[in-house]
Fold these 4 entries.
Entry 1:
Amino acid sequence: MSSGRYLPVVSAGFVTCLVVSNIIAVKIGAFGPWYLPVAVIIFPIAYIFGDVLTEVYGYARARQVIWIGFACNALAVGAIALGGWIAPAPFWTLRGFEAPASAQAAYQAILGFTPRLLAASFLAYLVGEFVNAYVLARLKLATQGRWLWLRTIGSTLAGQLLDSSIFLTVAFAGVMPGPALAPLVLTQWLFKSAYEALATPLTYVVVGALKRAEGLDSYDRDTDFNPLAVSGRKGG
């Protein structure tokens, strides 16, 4: 596998978008007539970084970064949970929450995670990101490196559909009425996909600049696409 001097920068951007989006996802915002987790303002950027990773550095490198992102997110969740379990100091307060107990409750309400939501988030992330990388790599071979827009948008449509479907179903099935889930999945999917489609010109600029700077343009002709594979190449 090839590596490049800008790979750490792209990887850091990917991981940062992932961790931040999971922290701010607790808030539901109003986007015109639609109500969505505010994480939609940054989570699609993680998919853009994922597209750049696969397009420039190849699926094997993208696979490494996806797992690094998973580990970093798990570390963030663990640290936040540990911070919540520690008893508050008797003098600790937050603005608007003058008693330590109420400040602690506010911390848990905003930063706390339920096991079900964590499971939904982690599973949706892994499936969505790996499908996104796989589809982009396969489309690159099928198109012989042409039509980058088709690869980035096509892979996003597949990855984001699975991400939204899995997260909302695992997190809210049985809690939210079934007929209400489908429109929510559709809205999130279309919003995130439209976000990346609008960012396509920027993706072209970043991909072109990185390919020139790194001297790389990876094609996954002999890549093992198993998400759990250690080696980047097929055996045999």
Entry 2:
Amino acid sequence: MADTSKLRIPDIAIVKWRNIADLLAKLAGVPAATINIIEEDSVRVIGQKSRDSAAGDGDHISLQKGLKVYCAAVIESREKLIVPDAGKSAFWKDSEGAKAGYLAYAGVPIFQPDGEIFGSVCIFDTKPNQFDGTIVRLMEEFSEIITGHLELIAKNISLEATLKEVRTLQGLIPICAQCKKIRDDKGFWQKVEVYLEERSNARFTHGLCEDCMQKLYGKEKWFKEKDK
């Protein structure tokens, strides 16, 4: 299966995930929800705020600051995190998230099919929020849906690679009627095993069929006596 940490996520999947974030924010009644993807040197953010939110550019910047600290905790711990009121938390009250105005946060990790961390699903609120258990459960379901998407994407990539290999062996293949060498697209004649190994994952081991053994050694005394 393809390595999901290096997958190019199709645009249609990104659109679906952004819709999930928008819907999640609306259902939770919060100003912001995001799906965050770990990339090589950064975290890619999908979905910045709910469609009903009146947040402006300044709020967008504040959300980015809050996201870095809250979501980083989920990704690093690989566990669900709920902060009902950062202002009353000795740990969170001086965090960048609280300073940015996001006092409540809920986030769940997203995993790749192989169990490695992929990112997180997060919701933010500018006021204290206990986050109803149904909302958190919905976030967990969304996380599992994304993991399923990743598995399908990886399988499609593997299938496309297999089909590409098959296509290279389709059509008319020029083969010598005498020596059985194959002419490649550059005009060079190659042994059958060399031609196929260069265009597939096949590897050859050599032996002799019964007809060739009879042709080569049929008159030898040791050969005639080997089956007696």
Entry 3:
Amino acid sequence: MRPATLALLLACGPAAACTAETGATAPTVVELYTSEGCSSCPPADRWLSTLKARPDVLAVAFHVNYWDHLGWQDRFATAEGTQRQRALARAAAQPSVYTPQVRVNGVDVRAGAALPAPRTSPLRLTLARDGDEARVGVAPLAGGGRRLAGWWALLEDGHASRVRAGENAGETLRHDHVVRLYRPVADWNAADGLQARLALPAATPGQPRRIVFIVADPVTQRPLQALALGC
């Protein structure tokens, strides 16, 4: 029997349509902020890759762009990833950002730290893909006017880069859980629920891809529920 935190695959057929739904608990969300230009980042990248086998963990790797001017341009780095890291630092009253930085359920920890057990969550998500579109549904949450936030991510596994300059010159770096698209959605009233869609860009040939949706507290941005779809 599969763990309740594992996204449950309900259907996946020749029409390339598939769906998943959450169980009664929320997976542990691990966010890594990393860069190919940072010499202390590869051990954190390798640790994040070991989490692929954990059905109770949802890992994402944001590559930031503020190392790019030091001799090597990280092809996965985005301004959006950097902006998210800085916004989280402001929300937590932290004076600066750094790499590698790991946040587990929104809280700063060191790479390799023991991860907490999944948490019970009243939030119920369904996630579906049909061709080049993804859809998410967040069920209404009883209890009044609480606000919720959310964001999409497209993750890719199995990347490798031969670094030719900068602090990691001469190294071949391998990456999983790489965020290739990050898209926040507007906050909503929890009692109303949410229905949202995402137009999917073309997949990178040969790279396994997952569609992720994460529900979070709009003030702290700490994850409350999360779901991944791998088909």
Entry 4:
Amino acid sequence: MADALRLAFAGTPPFAATALAGILDAGYEVALVFTQPDRPRGRGHKAAPSAVKALALERGLAVLQPVTLKGLSMPPIKNAVDVLVVAAYGLILPQAMLDWPRRGAINIHASLLPRWRGAAPIQHALLAGDKETGISIMQMDAGLDTGPVIARAIVPVALRDTGGALTVRLAAAGAAAIVQTLAALEASGRLASHPQDAAAATYAGKIGRPQAAIRWNDDAATIDRVVRAFNPTPGAFATLDGATIKIWTAEPTSGSFGTAGAIVGADANGLLVACGRGALLVRELQRAGGKRLAAAAFLAGHPIVAGAAFDAISG
């Protein structure tokens, strides 16, 4: 049996914190944790630590929060760190950081590579209507999620999955997969890997506000996937009489309902909005600065009559 591994970890959101917790609970020593700087969060916009930092401090781990990795001098523990485990860190690692551990860097990526390389694989899997996704444990190289794959774990996509629900399941699968990978490395001293088929690669670019805007000319099933993919963040939205309305939960309905964006029904069951094909029954929604409300409560405070229409967005 090889010597016990000593690790470093790089990650930021709850997805990564789940992996770090799994590694620590499995008994591995983590010498150093990298995470992004504290960011303003919540209604008060006060600086708050990432999920990874909060866990690391709770477990008594050393933490570094560089604003940038360009020109970063690696801490003088090179020969003591075997592997750098990376999960949703949010910064591109320079070659010096990849070369820092004795056995390189291993990434926990939330897709079945080479499908959905990039920053937002979970949302893109939902937007595309994929029936399954998963976790890839990958040996990192200088490319964008291009390194050889060490292990994969398939995770089915449920019919009504949201980005949040799927992320939780993928995080658990990622934690289990990295612990199994580290155990195999510790036992044998090596890891088999397989190169990716670059010709089969698809890319999951960053998600921003423009991607979350609902385009009512799309069919109802497509819009439904947008709503679910961006729940909870950044949140699918539309505008009604110039006011931003975030749509949290909805259901697609088949049929012919008239002009896209028109509200053809508004009652306690929800707002029925015509789409390019079919309609979307909006069950939970939220005005900017307001609370997330069921349709009945929303309409009690903000009456909407049938015949009103959401503002059009082209494209």
